[in-house]
Write a structure and sequence with these properties.
six-stranded antiparallel beta barrel, alpha+beta, 8 strands, 3 helices, 136 residues
Amino acid sequence: MIVETVVTTINPDGSVNCGAMGVEWGDARIVIKPYRGTRTLRNLGATGAAVVNLTDDILLFSQAALGDPHPPTRPATSVAGAVLDDACSWREVRVEAIDDGAERAVVSTVVVGGGTGREFLGLNRARHAVLEASII
């Protein structure tokens, strides 16, 4: 199942990178599919870790897509990564394999940690429209 999330990775300078993207969601494994040449893919290759944040706060998707202002985060516990402060839940993942042979890479990960922040209320039509715009 594809779930719209905000994936956070760590840049070489230690700052947090946010990328709005759909992932193949699973309890034990998550597949992340960033475009080749993106900062998210470079960071996944360099650090081997990410946090996949589930949220219904559409502003976080917009901020991730635009890159500014950066949403507030806190350190992850199982990987060198960052959890969005307003995440409903999150999964901390380690990279197992990266296949970057297509336009979108396939990054296979294993879930090594996670948590719950608040109830997920879902996305109504207006929020969904903003989400689709942030993906484009």
